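ok trying this again, last paste got cut off
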Amino acid sequence: MSQKNSNTKIIVAGACGRMGMRILELADQGPYDIVGAVEAKGHPQIGVQLPNLISGISANGVQVSDSLSEQIGNAEVVIDFTHPDVTMEHIRELAGFKKGIVIGTTGFSKAQLEEVQTLSKKTPVVLAPNMSVGVNIVFQLSELLGKLLDEEYDVEIIETHHRFKNDAPSGTALELAKRVAAGREVDLDEMGVYGRKGFTGERKKGSIGVHALRGGDIVGEHTVRFLTQGETIEISHRASSRDSFASGALRAAQFLSSKKSGFYTMKDVLGLK
């Protein structure tokens, strides 16, 4: 009984999406209580009980809803993999309840990110473009290599995702570029190059290239290349399933369950220095 009471009580927003359903499946197998599932208004699964949506899940009595506020009372943390505009609505709502939110959504504008930072003073937030342990180690390595390797090393970042992904480049690729820029102490807005077409001229020294590929059912692949005369250093991460992202999101939810406010990343969740 005491173990059950220690479970982290979660709501999953974007519950019927690829990530949402996998998070629900893994949560049902771990120290979590699923107390809510949210989808967009008009979604065909609204009103469906979770055991009828996901075979074998034990979240009896929980049904897919289009209202976060109706389900928030019993929750500690919301895990949100939706759309930037929807996520912003959710975090504004949660600030009034002082409930935590794990944000896996990508594609935010600068203004939206600034608002998330402001709202984190009222409700705890973990915001991460990628919640995989492996990817977050690649973030660290990319920043270190950016610091160690000067502008004689050209940097190119290539990401590949399934055909259904809406934003490009991926949030992970953008974070990788930010980490390299941070290591080099340069402004990514000035040094970033996003795809190339036509007569582009010679590559600008110190620029950071970012390229997006889309096709098939690829979960996610990211490669950072540091290229110079005579050698190439390459860091790659390939996800074969969504489990690493889903388990990372759940780990972040546990981390937030004891927080009252604050802005955090997976670096905090994983204890990376």
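PB: full thing came through this time. The longest helix spans residues 133-148.
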